[in-house]
Amino acid sequence: MRREITDQAPPSARQRFLKLTTHRRVLQIGSVLVFLLAWWAITRFGNINPTVLPSPIDVFHQLIVTNQCTTSETGRVRCGAQDYYLWQHLLATLQRIGVGVGAGTIVGVLLGWLLGISANARAVVEPYLGFLRALPPLGYIGLLIVWFGIGDVSKVVLLFAAVFPTVAVGTLAGVLSVKQDWIRAAKTLGANSLQILRRVTIPAALPHIITSIRIGTGLAWSAIVAAELNDGIPGIGGLAYISGTQLDTALTIACIIVIGITALIIDQLLIRLERRCTPWVGK
After folding, report:
1. Span 163-169, average pLDDT
2. Which of 62, 112, 263, 275 could pair covalently with 221 via S-S, beta carbons 3.0-4.6 A apart?
3. Once rounded to an integer, what is the mean pLDDT over residues 239-266?
4. Is 191 helix (H, G, I), strand (E, B) or coil?
C-alpha cells in the first residue's frame, strides 16, 4: 500500500503575524464583551442605584442622545449636552490637546537636545525639569487662571506644562544613549557633522523621543479635566466634570469612555509611527 507524502511549506512570517494578530484581537474583543456583560449583570441584579452605577445601556443611550436633538413634552428642543453635541465637545478638546501637545513636543525636543549636547546647560536646567514633572495639574491650575484668565490660553498652557518636561527628559535620555563608538566609526568612514546627525544621532535618539511623546500625550489627556475645570464648555473634560456635579453619572461615564477611546486611538497612531520610523527597535 502506497502512501502519498505531501510536502507542506511552513507558514510565512506574514501568515504567523496575521494569525497572532487575529488571536490577540479575539482576546481583546472577548474581554470587552465579558466586561460589558459583567457590568450589565451587576446593575441588573445587584439592586444598585443608577446614580452610583448606571447600566451600559444607559451610558450607550447618552452617547446617542448627546449627538442629536430631542423634543421634550413641553415642546422645547434640546440638542446635545450643554447646548453642544458630544462630537463638538470632543472636537474642542482635541483642538486644545493638539496645540498643547504640539507646542510641548517642539519645545521639549529642542530643550532636551540642547541639554543632551551641553553638560553645563544640563546641570542648570535638569532640576527644574524634575520639579515641573512632579507637579500635579490641579496644583497650579489656579495660578494659570490668575495669569492667563479662564479662556483657552490657560488650558493650553496647562497641557503644554504637562507635556514638555516629559518630552524634554525623553529626548535628553535619547541623546545621551547614543554610543560614542557609533559616532567615532562614522567619523572614521568620512562622515561630516550633518551626516552624523542625520544618520547616527537622530535615528538612535528617535525611539526615546517617540516614547516620551506617547507618555506626554497620555499625561495631557489625564490633565484635560483639570484644564477644562473652569469655562470648559465646549469640551469633553468640562462636560464630564459638569455632568458629575449634576449627578448625571451615565453622561459622566460616557464622556470618560469617549476620552479613553480617543486617547487609545491616538496612542495606537503613535505606536504605528514608532514602528514605521524605527523598525529596527527590538530586532
Report:
1. 94
2. 263
3. 93
4. coil
